[in-house]
Amino acid sequence: MRCARDRSFLLGLRTWAIALLTLAGPALAGGGVPCDCTWLNGAPDNPVPADVRAIISHEGGLVPLGLKAADDFYLQPGDIHKLISISAEALTSTTPGLVKARLELYADCDGRPGALLHTFRTAQIVESGPVGFDNLRRVSFTFVIADQSGPGLDPPIALREGAYWVSLIGLSDNLCPTGGPCDQTAWLPVAAAQVMGRPPMKISGVPTGVYNQYSYAGQIWQPLDECCSGCADLSFKVCTEPCRILHDSGGPDLTRFSRSLSGGPGVVEARTADDFLVPPCTDRQLCYVQTYLATNCNPPRARLDIYDADCNLPATFSPPITFEASRLTDTGQTVTIDGALLRVYSVEFWNFNAFGPVPLTLQARLNYWLSVYAVSSGSIAERGYILGALRCDQPPCPGTLVIRNPAAESGLAFGILDHTWRTAAPIGGFPFDIGFTLAVKPLPPPGVINALPACPVDFNNSGNVNTQDVFDFLNAWFTGC
After folding, report:
1. Fewer Cβ in 10 A, N or C end of the chain?
2. What is the SS3 assignment for 33?
């Protein structure tokens, strides 16, 4: 089977489905977690009819080999989505007090669940009582990402545009082998027979020879049997916090790199920075940065510095604002630089609350510079390099051109301080540009939590009312804002 890119797109999705991505505005996930309802398939019938075509998705009990169902959702282009929660509605006969479930998140692979991205095991469970048949009770599961634990689950998960699949799997109470009743869980369909994207799919387990161990090796996700389930979506909701992509230069280019390392005494230190522009009219809050580092630092650590601009370089004498990396993910790639074998990491930053509860604000119409660097443990053998953006110099276009200033570099050499920024040397005959993605969101409206009190006359939100507000208003007026 041909798989598209890791973050593949749901080709052919109808435009009306895309319009539904923002149908609900701010909402509440389970447990009162505020979120943006990014995807809502629809609610099941209430009350549940006796002829409901719920889809079994369960491991153990009446399903000794395991059977998983999955349904898809779509994230709109242009945003980075901070995953808040995923909720689903189901029926279960599992013993009260022993109800539990697992939720799996998959990438899309040509219209089927592809690579397993994350597994969530901690759910907020709300039971609504018996439905009046087959010893079943209605239950809702909400998997809040902040409640999860395990590799790659905390801090938040960033999802890009495209199609994904979720699979809700009920887990047996394991009473059947001891003479108790055998249980099952069935995922409820939406009330109206409709499909956004692709119809749900299923995959069956195979014998393992070991009780309570399940395997789907060699099995392929298959369409549901429409004679029994109908062609209808399964009931679930995805809540995210979207951040608008402001800059995406692609990458990583393993053939283009520049030293970017912070160390201790005796370690050669260096920084590489690149710039981005905040469009006019509206200030923004920084909410996401992602780039790639090649390093042999153990354990791998990284930081981000944000600099003001001084013409076409970072400001030398203006101290940066520094943030710790939220997550470093080993990409599985390696590169050899100056004789050292280095692993390539995707580095993500989410937490930009540098000043208490207020995230970092980027002012409209300004250039800023960012520098991401590996943090050494002090060994003189440790190295750190930031990787370049894929370039687009001739068709077919594999990446992007430098659209503002080339990257800048500065360094400390064995304790000799040199903070002077200079334009980075070209690599391969082309200006060097860092491969990074940066996303922002508008400032929250007045009165919203984490927002500073606003004064209408304080046009630039500086906290002071003076003639600068008049000039900023006129400047915004004549630039068409």
Report:
1. N
2. coil
- SS3 call for 32: helix
Take residue 226 and report the two structure tokens written for it.
């429409």
The CA distance from 184 to 92, in Å, is 6
- Please compute the mean of the pLDDT values over residues 457-479 and round it to a whole number: 65
CB 434 within 8 A of CB 253: no
Q: What is the pLDDT at residue 284?
A: 93
Among 261, 266, 286, 262, CA closest to 276: 286
105/384 Cα distance (integer angstroms):
32
Find out whether 35 and 25 touch, Cβ atoms under 8 Å.
Answer: no
Taking residue 208's Cβ as centre, other Cβ atoms within 10 Å add up to 13
Residues 6 or more apart from 129 whose CB is under 8 A from it?
Answer: 137, 138
The more confident residue out of 461 and 199 is 199
Query: Would you give the DSSP letter of residue 413?
Result: B
Torsions phi, psi of 22, nearest 5? -115, 30
Greatest CA separation for the chain: 81
> Among all chains, which residue has been given the structure tokens 């969101």?
441
Are 377 and 267 a contacting pair, CB within 8 Å? Answer: no
Q: Give the per-residue pLDDT at 471.
A: 65
User: To the nearest 10°, the Cα dihedral for 276, 280, 286, 288?
Assistant: -60
Q: What is the pLDDT of residue 356?
A: 61
Any idea which residue has 């590169």 for tokens? 335
| Three-state DSSP class for residue 177 | helix
Q: At residue 388, what are phi and psi to the nearest 5 degrees?
A: -85, 170
Buried b / exposed e over 43-72, threshold 16 CB at 10 Å, is: ebeeebeeebbbbbbbbbbebbebbbbbbb
String of DSSP letters for 151-165: TTTSSPPEE-SEEEE
Using an 8 Å Cβ cutoff, are 461 and 452 in contact?
yes
Euclidean distance between the first and final Cα of the chain, in Å?
Answer: 50
**Tokens standing for residue 30:** 């389970």
How many other CB atoms sit within 10 Å of the CB of residue 100? 17
Q: Which residue do the tokens 């990438």 mark?
A: 107
- In the predicted structure, residue 438 carries a pLDDT above the cut 70: yes
User: Cα(38)–Cα(239) distance, rounded to whole angstroms?
Assistant: 5
Quick count: other Cβ atoms within 10 Å of Cβ 419? 12
What secondary structure letter does DSSP report for 62? T
| Bridge pairing between strands 253-259 and 384-388 | antiparallel
Q: Which tens digits make up the pLDDT trace of 177-197?
A: 887 789 999 999 998 767 788
